[in-house]
């Protein structure tokens, strides 16, 4: 516990690196907002539940985008939640448009910005017709890269553009979030003759960026691996390569491998139970007259919630634990 | 007896009554102003007439020709007629040249006092050589080949002119025949009524079987009592009201199709007998009573007497027609107003959408080169609401001039459907609806209203229209699946119709399944007209079941409560805001909502807050966040200080400990002085 590296860091830095303060602030904020309800069963219990949910990755459900984006752990949890909730859509084989995926995202995060989804779609579609349909797995992996590394990608975009236009790649560029991608479009048009940039040069710049960057970035070794086979590459080609790279996916730890994407036996079991219950529910509803329950709403709901709490404590296969990452 | 042609003419009419004309001439020596009577009679005529009839019969028999000699003259091409003197004395005033195979009119010498001349059934092509017969009263040229009326200018006494069954194309050259009483031009090729306006003594005019297409130019015929226009192509009739004596008008077998085309008949007070059979108008359902109603003076229609019963029926039916017309006029006015209002609402909606779109695009392209014109209305993006430009009758136009204010919204109740157009219409839900009306409404339709605005009034809808089972949305800007979450708060929905126009959400592949999933507790029967099958429900559950599971079971308790509490609080708020609510009812409603909201708990956390509310909430939270931040910072500061102190203490403690021990040992070294010190301390303490 008292490892030397930990003690070496000054206090604030340590806390910041672990984003402890973010969670503390959020916890207190939530407490303030729901004062009346929480005071019913005690503050200690609230904090327990809160940090438990942080551990389990359910704290980001239905939260505002600023919170979802706040820490890498949040982002990973969100990706996981999205995967778990809508895996069935993918399993069903439906191809959806970017707008529809955005809708699904908004079901979990009401103010999720459209630009991020658009950028993710661009990776899949290679900046082509934006109304095309995309498969669930393609979109999900591209979205993962775009969402988790969004700041990193903005810097990469700026670098790429500089390389294209022949500027000195070693100057530090810290672009604003919108301008990077925005300038991208005209540049691609010019790259008609020369397809993208040279891979090795590009990689050097990336390495420098990774060293300097305070945002999370993919492990350089894996990036090198992704770039190893190609001489030249375009920006979206690069992103596509990143999204398809298994190693990076595993390094993130949010989603299972592509092959296992549709598998989640525990959830499938749960789903079957739900389906059966809904079938019975429907037929019984058709038979009996519509009558409200004798008990008030809260009681019933509480019962269910209590049931669920016990099942939630069972460890699940892809359970993500809150651990320090490189 | 009766001249054959009259019998045959009238006989063609589809009736049993024989109304032939009976020619009676009184030969009692009267001056020129001979009263020539024409009587319609079925019975035999008066005594003197019968004698004459005999005469006429004999006169007009085919044996007539035996008494006539036609000598062709070498001087001219015309044959010259000569009669024996006994003939001349016996039949001094009449001459019959019937069926003489004449091709021209012969010259008739020495018969200048002739009064009746008969040229029937010949082949005469021109009327000639009769100018000298200036005492002629009756000229009969029936069944010849005359192409033009001419050669009559000297016959100033003529009373009867029979030119039926010829080839006359034009009525002309009758200027001097001011005494004409009967003019028979049936069976010719006349296309126009003209040049008869001076015939003020004319009583019978027969223009049957011609080519007339309309009737006018009848002024001046002040004595006309009978006008026969059967078997023409007449489409409209005019000027009949200028005939002060007209009693009988025969219009059978023409082309009259509406009463308007013969409207002048209504103004003719003398008309008592009229026929319309064989016209298109006679086939109409409203024919009889319209005619009877408009022509109260009629005594006979289509040769049948009009009974009192019929007249009464006619007026009753006519009144009903009037009512219906007024009703339909009102209806079309209303419809027009409705159409205008809806168009207005549509236009406003489009403007609004355009503005929103322009704002969005302007934000996206802050540094674009071509700035958008915010007021530009692109015709192609206007909603395709059909502009019904049907022809408005003048009455409607006049009424619409009064519609100076066109509403910006429209509320209409049509049986069981309540339709709302435009966001202003939502306020109408606050009105005092009668229980009966409100109870009948099963369908509510929203058009040109933002869905977010509709969401806010859904609680009101639930209360005021408890039987609304079918909701329809068109042009309501449904763009996200989330928005359907808002519908869960209603009592019950059996059918949902989301019109693709103006609702982009319909383009999503999964929207129906999401609706079925989220609103599963309604057990909906139809979506957009198609039945919901068991398979659909199962599919919906399969697709989104896990979402529900996650949303309910994996949320921590406090979040569940807070989310649900929010939703309920909002509904309660709407209830409180509604006008005229008694407190007792509010409680009831609250309980009601409590019970029903819990229908399907595991998806109850999937709510929809409109964008505005959401942003409001986030704004509110900002303050709290700031406070939390500073609070935590203070805590952290404290904690780090304590930590620092702790660490510092950890570092310094060994040294401090040693010093403590050393100080203690030094103190105790000298036992005596230490004992003294201790005692001193104890006394000091007291």
Structure description:
The complex is a heterodimer of chains A (326) and B (686). With 326 residues, chain A is mainly α. Chain A has a domain at 10-56. Helix content of chain A is 66%, strand content 1%. Chain A has a two-stranded antiparallel ribbon with strand order 1-2. Chain A starts with a helix and ends in a 14-residue tail after the last helix. Chain B is an alpha/beta fold and 686 residues long. Among the domains of chain B are: 409-566, Alpha-Beta Horseshoe (Leucine-rich repeat, LRR (right-handed beta-alpha superhelix)); 614-685, no CATH class. Chain B is built from 14 helices and 25 strands. In chain B, the strands form five sheets. In chain B, strands 5-7-8-9-10-11-13-15-16-17-18 form an eleven-stranded mixed sheet, with no helix packed on it. The longest helix of chain B has 59 residues, at 611-669. Chain B is rod-shaped. The model of chain B is unreliable at 1-66, 367-405 and 578-599 (pLDDT under 50). Chains A and B meet through helix 2, helix 3, helix 5, helix 7 and helix 8 of A and helix 10, helix 11, helix 12 and helix 13 of B.
- What CATH architecture of the domain at 409-566 in chain B would you give? Alpha-Beta Horseshoe
Percentage of residues in DSSP E strands of chain A: under 5%
Give the helix/strand class of chain B.
alpha/beta
> Superfamily at the CATH H level of the domain at 409-566 in chain B?
Ribonuclease Inhibitor
- Terminal CA distance of chain A reads 18 Å
From the N-terminal CA to the C-terminal CA of chain B, the straight-line distance is 174 Å
Uncertain stretches of 5 or more adjacent residues of chain B: 1-66, 367-405, 578-599
The largest β sheet of chain B comes out as: 11 strands, mixed
Calculate Rg of chain A over CA atoms. Answer: 23 Å
Beta-strand percent range of chain B = 5-15%
**What percent of residues of chain B adopt helix (DSSP H or I)?**
25-40%
Q: Helical percent range of chain A?
A: 55-70%
Class by helix and strand content of chain A? mainly alpha
Element-by-element helix/strand order of chain A: HHHHHHHHHHHHEHHEHHHH
The pLDDT mean of chain B sits at: 78
Q: How many strand segments of chain A? A: 2
* pLDDT < 50 stretches of chain A: 178-193, 287-326
Number of strands of chain B: 25
Strand line-up in the sheet with most strands of chain B: 5-7-8-9-10-11-13-15-16-17-18
Number of helices of chain A: 18
Strand order of the largest sheet of chain A: 1-2
InterPro entries (chain A): CSTPP1 (IPR038968)
Subcellular location (chain A): Cytoplasm, Cytoskeleton, Microtubule organizing center, Centrosome, Centriolar satellite
Keywords (chain A): Cytoplasm, Cytoskeleton, Microtubule, Phosphoprotein
Region (Disordered) (chain A): 282-301
């Amino acid at each position: 516990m008292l490892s030397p590296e930990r003690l070496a860091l000054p206090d604030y830095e340590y806390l910041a690196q672990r984003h402890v303060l973010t969670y503390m602030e959020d916890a207190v904020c939530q407490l303030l907002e729901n004062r009346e309800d929480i005071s019913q069963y005690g503050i200690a219990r609230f904090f327990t539940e809160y940090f438990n949910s942080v551990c389990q990755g359910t704290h980001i459900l239905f939260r505002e985008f600023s919170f979802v984006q706040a820490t890498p752990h949040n982002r990973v949890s969100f990706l996981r939640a999205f995967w778990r909730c809508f895996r069935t859509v993918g399993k069903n084989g439906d191809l959806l448009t970017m707008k529809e995926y955005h809708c699904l995202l908004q079901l979990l995060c009401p103010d999720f910005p459209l630009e991020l989804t658009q950028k993710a779609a661009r990776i899949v579609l290679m900046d082509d017709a934006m109304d095309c349909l995309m498969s669930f797995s393609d979109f999900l992996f591209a979205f993962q890269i775009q969402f988790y590394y969004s700041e990193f990608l903005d810097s990469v975009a700026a670098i790429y553009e500089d390389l294209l236009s022949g500027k000195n790649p070693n100057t530090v560029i810290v672009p604003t979030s919108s301008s990077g991608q925005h300038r991208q479009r005209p540049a691609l048009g010019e790259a008609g003759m020369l397809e993208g940039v040279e891979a090795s040069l590009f990689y050097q710049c990336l390495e420098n960026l990774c060293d300097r960057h305070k945002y999370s970035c993919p492990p350089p070794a894996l990036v090198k691996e992704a770039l190893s086979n190609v001489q030249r590459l375009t920006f979206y080609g690069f992103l596509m390569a990143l999204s398809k790279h298994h190693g990076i996916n595993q390094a993130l730890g949010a989603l299972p491998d592509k092959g296992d994407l549709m598998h989640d036996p525990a959830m499938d079991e749960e789903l079957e139970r739900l389906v059966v219950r809904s079938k019975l529910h429907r037929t019984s509803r058709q038979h009996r007259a519509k009558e409200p329950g004798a008990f008030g709403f809260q009681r019933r709901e509480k019962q269910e919630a209590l049931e669920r709490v016990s099942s939630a404590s069972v460890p699940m296969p892809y359970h993500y634990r809150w651990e320090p990452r490189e | 007896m009766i001249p054959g042609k009259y019998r045959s003419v009238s006989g063609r009419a589809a009736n049993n009554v024989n109304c032939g004309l009976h020619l009676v001439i009184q030969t009692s020596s009267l001056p020129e102003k001979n009263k020539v009577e024409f009587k319609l009679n079925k019975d035999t005529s008066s005594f003197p007439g019968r004698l004459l009839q005999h005469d006429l019969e004999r006169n007009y028999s085919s044996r007539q020709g035996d008494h006539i000699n036609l000598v062709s003259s070498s001087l001219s091409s015309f044959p010259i007629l000569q009669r024996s003197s006994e003939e001349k004395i016996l039949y001094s005033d009449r001459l019959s040249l019937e069926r003489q195979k004449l091709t021209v009119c012969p010259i008739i010498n020495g018969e200048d006092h002739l009064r009746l001349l008969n040229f029937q059934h010949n082949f005469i092509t021109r009327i000639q050589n009769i100018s000298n017969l200036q005492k002629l009263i009756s000229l009969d040229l029936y069944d010849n080949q005359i192409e033009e009326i001419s050669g009559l200018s000297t016959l100033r006494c003529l009373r009867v002119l029979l030119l039926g069954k010829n080839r006359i194309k034009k009525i002309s050259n009758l200027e001097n025949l001011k005494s004409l009483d009967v003019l028979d031009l049936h069976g010719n090729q006349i296309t126009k009524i003209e040049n008869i306006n001076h015939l003020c003594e004319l009583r019978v005019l027969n223009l049957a079987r011609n080519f007339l297409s309309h009737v006018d130019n009848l002024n001046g015929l002040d004595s006309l009592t009978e006008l026969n226009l059967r078997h023409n192509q007449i489409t409209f009739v005019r000027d009949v009201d200028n005939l002060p004596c007209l009693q009988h008008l025969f219009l059978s077998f023409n082309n009259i199709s509406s009463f308007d085309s013969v409207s002048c008949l209504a103004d003719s007070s003398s008309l008592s007998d009229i026929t319309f059979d064989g016209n298109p108008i006679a086939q109409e359902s409203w024919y009889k009573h319209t005619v009877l109603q408009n022509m109260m003076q009629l005594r006979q229609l289509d040769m049948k007497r009009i009974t009192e019963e019929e007249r009464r029926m006619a007026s009753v039916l006519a009144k009903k027609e009037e009512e219906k017309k007024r009703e339909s006029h009102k209806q079309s006015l209303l419809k027009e107003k409705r159409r205008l209002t809806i168009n207005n609402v549509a236009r406003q909606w489009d403007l609004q959408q355009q503005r929103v779109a322009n704002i969005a695009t302007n934000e996206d392209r802050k540094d674009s080169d071509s700035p958008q014109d915010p007021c530009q209305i692109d015709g192609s993006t206007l909603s395709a609401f059909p502009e019904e430009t049907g022809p408005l009758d003048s009455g409607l136009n006049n009424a619409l001039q009064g519609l100076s204010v066109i509403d910006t919204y429209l509320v209409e109740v049509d049986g069981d459907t309540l339709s709302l157009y435009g966001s202003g219409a939502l306020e109408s839900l606050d009105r005092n609806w009668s229980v009966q009306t409100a109870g009948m409404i099963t369908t509510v339709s929203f058009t040109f209203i933002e869905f977010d605005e509709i969401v806010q009034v859904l609680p009101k809808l639930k209360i005021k229209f408890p039987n609304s089972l079918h909701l329809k949305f068109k042009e309501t800007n449904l763009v996200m699946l989330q928005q359907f979450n808002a519908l869960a708060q209603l009592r019950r929905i059996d059918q949902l119709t989301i019109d693709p126009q103006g609702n982009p959400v319909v383009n999503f592949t999964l929207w129906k399944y999401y609706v079925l999933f989220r609103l599963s507790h309604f057990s909906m029967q139809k979506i957009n007209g198609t039945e919901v099958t068991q398979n659909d429900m199962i599919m919906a559950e399969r697709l989104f079941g896990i979402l529900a599971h996650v949303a309910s079971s994996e949320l921590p308790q406090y979040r569940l409560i807070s989310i649900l509490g929010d939703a309920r609080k909002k509904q309660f708020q709407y209830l409180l805001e509604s006008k005229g609510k008694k407190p007792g009812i509010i409680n009831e409603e609250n309980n009601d909502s409590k019970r029903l909201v819990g229908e399907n708990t595991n998806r109850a956390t999937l709510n929809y807050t409109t964008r505005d509310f959401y942003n409001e909430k986030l704004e509110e939270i900002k303050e709290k966040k700031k406070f939390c931040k500073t609070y935590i910072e203070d805590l952290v500061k404290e904690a780090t200080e304590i930590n620092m102190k702790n660490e510092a203490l950890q570092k310094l403690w060994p040294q401090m400990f040693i010093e403590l021990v050393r100080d203690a040992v030094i103190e105790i070294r000298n036992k005596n002085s230490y004992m003294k010190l201790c005692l001193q301390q104890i006394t000091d303490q007291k």
